[in-house]
Amino acid sequence: MKHFIIFFTLLFLVSLPVSAQTPSSERRAVLAQQLQILMNQVIVLQAQLAQLKIRTTGISHSQDDLYPTDFYAGEYAAAYTVKNHALLPMITTGVRIGDKALFETFIDLAGQNFVDTYISEFRIFNDSDSGLGGFVQQKLDQSWILALNGFDENLQEAYVRQDMSEMMLHEYAHILFFEDTTIGDAFTDTFWDSRLMQRHSSEMEGIIDMEEIFEVNYDFYTEHEDLFVSEYAATAPVEDLVESFTAFVLTDRPEGDIIADEKIRFFYDFDNMLDTRIQLRKSGVLTLQ
Question: Which one of 25, 210, 258, 267 has the minimum C-beta count within 10 Å?
Fold first, then answer.
């Protein structure tokens, strides 16, 4: 762009009449002022082009340009804009092989229509100290960010481990039940209406420190293990919903009489959940149990 400015300036001067190429001091001051205006305009154009590049290609090359989230404030190894279920790099110069494999696995799981409808960003962060395996967050424009913690994945290899595909199913379910709250509300009314569950939910909401949350939750879970399909399910009604749905998709219908089994059987009462289960199990992505 500097070369462009120099060329533009030379062209401007050469185009002047011969008599104007030896200007007076007053004329030189006017020319300098005009040149400064031109340079300012070029700077503005540069900024506008940069924003246009971000909108059209997704490339920003800066962590600061990324949409902030409530779940993770650290550095991302990669971030992509999603357009027509394809990845456009935002902070890397290209699409990493492993990231592409992960995202294509999510497409196989959720379906192209789901991805095109909801997902606008895909991110990878590598944080072995974080207990966060992944998250989804809705942006102000109603689209969603999908982020996965890939610290235990070799992101240069085109494969996805079982636990990563199950994480994708978990995050998929968060979007599914956020976009349609009917089943989630019925689940909460059915299983979180007791004094015990309401007290636990209230206690968990009052804790800010993550380590304390996990400690309190672990103690509650070990005392009431028959109420939940997993330890993480005990952290909140929405996580209980999503974890129970994940078990509904991955496992056969349970025959037991504990509450955890009832939570899985809950989804069998909804035809759309049965259809979704069939779709997800046929994706070929999940390891069925």
Answer: 25
Tens-level pLDDT at each residue, the chain (289 residues): 444 433 333 333 334 444 445 556 667 766 667 777 776 666 555 444 544 454 454 455 578 788 999 888 889 999 999 998 899 999 888 898 888 988 999 999 999 999 999 999 999 998 888 778 899 999 999 999 999 998 655 555 545 556 688 999 999 999 999 999 999 999 999 999 999 999 998 888 878 887 888 899 999 999 999 999 999 999 999 999 999 999 999 999 999 999 999 999 999 999 999 999 999 999 999 988 8
For residue 202, the enclosing domain spans 180-281
Same domain, 25 and 73: no
Q: Are strands 119-125 and 78-83 parallel, antiparallel or unpaired?
A: antiparallel
Residues composing the chain: 289
Same domain membership, residue 143 and residue 69:
yes
Report if residue 234 sits inside a domain: yes
Same domain, yes or no: 193 and 271: yes
CB 229 within 8 A of CB 260: yes
Helices 237-250 and 162-179: crossing angle in degrees, nearest 10, is 120
Amino acid at 39: M
pTM value is 0.76
Residues 158 and 218 occupy one common structural domain:
no
Distance, in Å, from the CA atom of 237 to the CA atom of 224, rounded to the nearest integer, reads: 15
Contact 259, 191 (CB under 8 A): yes
